[in-house]
């Protein structure tokens, strides 16, 4: 046999063994069911089939229950079922015991499958990250594991391939599908100098990318780590149910002990019927459905939220979102884009606005001032070409000067641009500053020629998102360190209920606590280092995905796409999850009460009790999986 055939055979046999192991519980249940069927077909000696059906079907659940009992030293549902099955066999009800084991094993296999479905939603994120990359070396292309890439390596990504690491585009342009990161299905145009992220798909162009982060530090790996940690964070309700389970099982066993004797003396049941009803009680009173009421819904909600670009660091935070009564927003980078845009251009009488912009933008193109890029972009968008600049000189804290077409220009503060005050611009400036706008002055030998104002524009979706949040009954407020004018203007434009200006980070903590006292549970949304204390103090801290590392670490929820619309979506998902959990709990308790009552009335037998018990468990799991739908 050739080495290739041997390898293929080994892979096939390995796959077969692993498949059998992973589906062992289901296979055992099926064999148990077939043996039970044969037992009814050959009634001469049915125990020859019922006993192996009993042993094969019950192996996995017995092993699970005993292992958990030894490890945690507390009783569990599996132990109750084992006792009921063994008790049935002891009094000669082999068929009922075998059916109990079969249905319990089959239900367990189906529960495992449905739980794995929500787990796969989470683990599928890992599969989106490539294992290999095309490294560009001096000798050509080389395929290497992504884990071996270093910062400043150059890699090559072809159309249709997933980008393996975070980096900067050095050559090429393309559209990139960032759905794995942000949940947005619309491709993003990328060109020279733009940042690209691991796990995203290069759609239609070849890209040469400079690696900016190692695999373990990429944004995508951070998402995977956060989601993985979230799986183990249990909600308060889940923690209570798990604590309650141990106590409840003990109570059931105590009632079971009384059930073995009291009905014989109180109701006159014969001993066989009394013992049989005690076995049925062990089955129908087991809290399987109650225990399964929360985790499937919680995991499914976390998984579907991650697909939408909402990273929730655990079921406890997801559950708490529904209880929010107020939300506090930071301004810069949260309500606003954090990028200044030109708002107004005002020129002196006799000055041509287009020529004014042309001269100012030509000079600002060579400046490093934060507002310079906004002027250049505004001018270019108007179709105005830029001119050659000479004699550029920078005056830190004051402004810059340069010569354009033989005319000397000064740009910056009014005192730097001109020694003489211009009453017209002073009046305009007062109004602009009241509206929260930044102003720069530009002038030539004749004095101030004009002013350009800037505003930090609110996010495109901010008004709609805040409107939706308010419709959910939440109070909205902006808490910012910016001045009164900017805070008032942005708050009014965004449609917030209120605002606070000139607020230092330590004061934000005090205001968050005041909001909690006035309204109830409060969330804080921010993106910077100065927001981290408030994020930690709030009942729920929400960070914008483009924010600082400390904000992302402190927050309980992260919006990967910096999209404020995700906030009402997350609150809505939390409310839906809590509704489903309540439905599951009420339904589980109702089924248990009905089955226990039916048992005392001698209506339900052991197989029917198992069907009712396990059926209710499957129903609550399937109901929880509805959270996978967006």
TrEMBL record:
Gene3D superfamilies: Calcium-transporting ATPase, cytoplasmic domain N, Calcium-transporting ATPase, cytoplasmic transduction domain A, HAD superfamily/HAD-like. The keyword Ion transport applies. Its EC number is 3.6.3.3. Its main location: membrane. The keyword Glycosyltransferase does not apply. Signal peptide: none annotated. It is a multi-pass membrane protein. It is found in: Cell membrane. Keywords: ATP-binding, Cell membrane, Hydrolase, Ion transport, Magnesium, Membrane, Metal-binding, Nucleotide-binding, Phosphoprotein, Translocase, Transmembrane, Transmembrane helix, Transport. One of its GO terms (molecular function) is metal ion binding. PROSITE patterns: ATPASE_E1_E2, COF_2. Pfam families: E1-E2_ATPase, Hydrolase. GO terms for cellular component: plasma membrane. The chain crosses the membrane at residues 26-45, 79-110, 248-267, 279-303, 585-604. Residues 128-227 form the P-type ATPase A domain. Belongs to the cation transport ATPase (P-type) (TC 3.A.3) family. Type IB subfamily. This is Cadmium-translocating P-type ATPase. It comes from Siminovitchia acidinfaciens. The lineage of its organism: Bacteria, Bacillati, Bacillota, Bacilli, Bacillales.
């Amino acid at each position: 046999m050739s080495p290739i055939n041997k390898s293929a055979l080994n892979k096939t046999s390995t796959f077969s063994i692993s498949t059998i192991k992973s589906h062992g519980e289901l296979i055992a249940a099926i064999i148990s069911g077939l043996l039970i069927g044969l037992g009814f077909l050959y009634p001469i000696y049915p125990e020859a089939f019922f006993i192996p059906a009993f042993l094969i079907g019950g192996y996995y659940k017995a092993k699970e229950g005993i292992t958990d009992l030894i490890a945690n030293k507390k009783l569990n549902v599996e132990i109750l079922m084992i006792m009921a099955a063994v008790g049935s066999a002891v009094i000669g009800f082999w068929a009922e015991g075998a059916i109990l084991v079969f249905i319990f094993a089959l239900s367990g296999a189906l529960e495992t499958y449905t739980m794995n479905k929500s787990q796969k939603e989470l683990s599928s994120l890992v599969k989106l990250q490539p294992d290999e990359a095309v490294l560009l070396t001096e000798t050509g292309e080389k395929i290497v594991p992504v884990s071996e890439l270093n910062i400043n390596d150059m890699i090559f990504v072809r159309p249709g391939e997933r980008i393996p690491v975070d980096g900067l585009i050095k050559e090429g342009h393309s559209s990139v599908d960032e759905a794995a990161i942000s949940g947005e299905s619309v491709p993003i145009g990328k060109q020279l100098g733009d940042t690209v992220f691991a796990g995203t798909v290069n759609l239609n162009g070849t890209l040469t990318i400079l690696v900016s982060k190692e695999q373990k530090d990429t944004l995508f790996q951070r998402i995977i780590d956060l989601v993985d940690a979230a799986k183990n964070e249990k909600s308060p309700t889940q923690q209570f149910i798990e604590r309650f389970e141990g106590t409840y099982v003990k109570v059931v066993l105590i009632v079971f002990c009384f059930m073995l004797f009291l009905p014989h003396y109180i109701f006159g049941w014969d001993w066989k019927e009394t013992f049989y009803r005690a076995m049925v009680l062990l089955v129908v009173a087991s809290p399987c459905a109650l225990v399964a009421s929360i985790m499937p819904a919680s995991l499914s909600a976390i998984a579907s939220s991650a697909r939408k670009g909402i990273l929730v660091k655990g079921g406890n935070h997801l559950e708490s979102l529904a209880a929010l009564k107020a939300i506090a927003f930071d301004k810069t980078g949260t309500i606003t884009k954090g990028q200044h845009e030109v708002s107004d251009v005002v020129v002196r009488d006799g000055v041509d606005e287009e020529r004014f912009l042309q001269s100012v933008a030509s000079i600002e193109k060579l400046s490093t001032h934060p507002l310079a890029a906004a002027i250049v972009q505004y001018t270019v968008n108007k179709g105005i070409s830029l001119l050659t600049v000479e004699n550029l000189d920078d005056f830190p804290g004051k402004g810059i000067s340069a010569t354009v077409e033989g005319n000397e220009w000064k740009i910056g503060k009014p005192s730097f641009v001109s020694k003489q005050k211009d009453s017209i611009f002073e009046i305009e400036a007062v109004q602009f500053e009241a509206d929260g706008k930044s102003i720069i002055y530009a002038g030539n030998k004749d004095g101030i020629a004009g002013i350009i104002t800037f505003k930090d524009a609110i996010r495109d979706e901010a008004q709609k998102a805040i409107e939706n949040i308010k419709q959910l009954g939440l109070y909205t407020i902006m808490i910012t360190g910016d001045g009164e004018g900017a805070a008032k203007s942005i708050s009014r434009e965004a449609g917030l209920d209120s605002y606070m200006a000139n607020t230092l980070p330590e004061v934000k903590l005090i205001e968050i606590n005041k909001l909690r006292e006035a309204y109830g549970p409060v969330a804080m949304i921010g993106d910077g280092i100065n927001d981290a204390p408030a994020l930690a103090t709030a009942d729920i801290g929400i960070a914008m995905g483009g924010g600082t590392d400390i904000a992302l670490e402190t927050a309980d929820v992260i919006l990967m796409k910096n999209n404020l619309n995700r906030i009402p979506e997350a609150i809505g998902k939390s409310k839906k999850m809590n509704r489903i959990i309540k439905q599951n709990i009420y339904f589980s308790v109702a089924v248990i009460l009905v089955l226990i009552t039916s048992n005392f009335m001698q209506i339900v037998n052991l197989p029917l009790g198992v069907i009712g018990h396990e059926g209710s468990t499957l129903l609550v799991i399937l109901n929880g999986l509805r959270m996978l739908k967006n």
